[in-house]
Design brief:
This protein has 198 residues and is α+β, with helices and mostly antiparallel strands. The protein has helices at residues 10-21, 39-44, 64-75, 88-112, 121-141, 151-166, 172-175, 177-186, 190-195; strands at 2-5, 28-31, 52-54, 60-61. Strands 2-1-3-4 form a four-stranded mixed beta sheet. Strand 3 (52-54) and strand 4 form a beta hairpin. Helix 1 (10-21) runs parallel beside helix 3 (64-75), helix 1 (10-21) crosses helix 6 (151-166) and helix 4 packs antiparallel against helix 5. The longest helix is centred in the middle third of the chain and has 25 residues, at 88-112. It is globular.
Length: 198
């Protein structure tokens, strides 16, 4: 199998972390800049987005949620997502964290527009407030404190470290101190350290 990924992508990092957590072998990780519109990536994902997993038979899987569910189903016996049809609250939490990842990436894209003189204070503020509101909600639910490792925890950790990497000015630790304490322990996991953005 072949995984097209970007080192700076929090979506890619979630997938790479799960690969390591589940000790999956036989996946060639190919660093890819999606903005280059490389032929290999576009042949597998016409949207030109990463991550994208090419299976051994040549079939491509995208987006990150599809890849994560595939890996958990095929190699993790459902240990990360659990039984989908009986955990609607967990599904909702997963959607919230995915939405926060989307907001963090959109905020980064908005920041990059500043060089063009097109950055919008409205959208910047909207993304920042969505992130802080969402993190407060997650802290209140206590989902990070589950003793059993979940896909929500994996994606949350990738989100928080992405915020540190790209949005250091967003002082999320002051707003959600319990999540900051949780991350300080979670980030010690070998899979987290092996996938950290360089």
């Amino acid at each position: 199998m072949k995984l097209f990924y970007s080192d700076a992508s929090p979506y890619s990092r979630c997938v790479r972390l799960v690969i390591r957590h589940l000790s999956i072998t036989g996946i060639d990780e190919v660093m890819t800049n999606p903005l280059d519109n490389g032929e290999d990536l576009l042949e597998n994902n016409p949207l030109g987005k990463i991550p994208c997993l090419q299976l051994n038979d040549g079939s491509p899987l995208f987006d990150s949620e599809v890849i994560l569910r595939y890996l958990d189903s095929e190699y993790g016996e459902g240990q990360l997502f659990g039984i989908r049809e009986h955990n609607w609250i967990g599904e909702s939490h997963f959607s919230l964290i995915k939405g926060l990842l989307d907001s963090a990436v959109a905020l980064r894209q908005e920041q990059m527009r500043e060089e063009e003189g097109k950055r919008s204070p409205f959208w910047t503020g909207r993304f920042e407030q969505a992130l802080l509101r969402g993190l407060r909600h997650i802290e209140q639910t206590g989902l990070a404190m589950s003793p059993k490792l979940t896909i929500q925890q994996i994606c949350l950790a990738c989100l928080l470290e992405y915020l540190d990497f790209r949005h250091g000015e967003l002082e999320w630790r002051k707003v959600t101190p319990a999540l900051a304490v949780w991350l300080s322990g979670f980030e010690r996991l070998p899979a987290m350290q092996a996938t950290r953005t360089k």
